[in-house]
Amino acid sequence: MKHLPSNNQQSHIKHFHVSIATHCKYCGSENIVRYGFQNGMQQYFCRTCNRKFAGKDTLENKHTPTPEIGTALGMFYNGLSLSKISQQIQAIYNDDIGPSTIYYWVKEYSCKAIDIFKRCSLNVGDIWVVDETVINICGQNVWFWDIIDEKTRFLLASHLSKERTIADVAVVMRKALDRTGREPKYILSDSLKAYPKGIQRIFGDRAKHVKSKGFTAEINTNLIERFHGTVKERTKILRGFKSLETAKMILDGFLINYNFFRPHMSLKDTTPAHEAGVKLPFDTWEGLLRILQYGS
Fold first, then answer.
1. Is residue 90 scored above 90 in pLDDT?
2. How far apart are CA 190 and CA 217, in angstroms?
3. Residues near 218 by Cβ (< 8 Å), separated by ≥ 6?
4. Which DSSP helix (H) or strand (E) runs through 45?
5. Is 160 domain-assigned?
6. From the CB of residue 186, how many other CB atoms can be counted at a distance below 10 Å?
7. Does the predicted model carry a pTM greater than 0.85?
C-alpha cells in the first residue's frame, strides 16, 4: 500500500509536472534510458526498478494521460452522466473515450481512493444528523441513508438497505463511529421509530436522540435543507447502476469527492475535510491519481 507523502513533498506533488523523458513513471528514478519505439511512441527502460514504460504521462497499465482520467472522475462525481463526460473529454482533450471506459475508471480508482482516505483521522463535532430517503436502483426501491457532522459538514457514512429497521440504523451508526473514532452527544433525525433503538444499540445512553422538530430552528431549516440537496445530486448518479454492490462502492467515492474535493459555500469555500483538520498535498482527483502514479 502506498502512503501519503511527507510534508516536504506536498508542494512538489500538488503542482506536479514531470519531464517524462527523465523520470520513471513507476518509481520516479532518473536512471532511465531510451528503449526504442512501440506504435510510434518512445519507450523507456528504468534501470532502478527494471520496468519499461511509454513516454507519456500515464498511470500504470493505462494509455490515457492522467489529467484526462482525473477530469473524468471529477465530472462524474459532480453529477455528469457517462455519455456527457465522454463528450467533454473529446471536446477538451480531443480524445475519443467511450462511456464504458470511463465507468471502468470510476470503479477502479474509487476503490483505490477509498483505501487511501479511510486512513485520515477526523476532528468532528458533537452533533450528527442522519436521514434516509428512497431511491430506485436496478428496478427496485432501496433506502439510502446518510449521516453528517453538523459542525464540519463532513459526510461520515452512507448506507443502502432494502428496509428501514433498527438493524439498518445501527449499521449506519457503526460506520460513522468507526470512521470518526468518537461518539457524538446528540443525533438529530426525523421521526422514524427505528432511530432511538438503533442509536442505543451502538451508543447506549451516551448519545441522545433528538427529533428534528425538537431541535433548534437553525439546524432544521438550514442544514437539513442543504443535506437533502446533496442526496438528490447522488440519486441521479446511483439510478444508473446495475447492482447494489457497485452502487455502495460509488457511494464511498462520492463521500470522498464531497468531503475532500468540493468547496462548500457554507464553509466559506473550504471543504469538510479542511474543517475536520485533514491536511492533504492535493485537492483534486488528478492530484490523488499522482499519489497512485508516483507514490511517496
1. yes
2. 14
3. none
4. strand 41-46
5. yes
6. 16
7. no
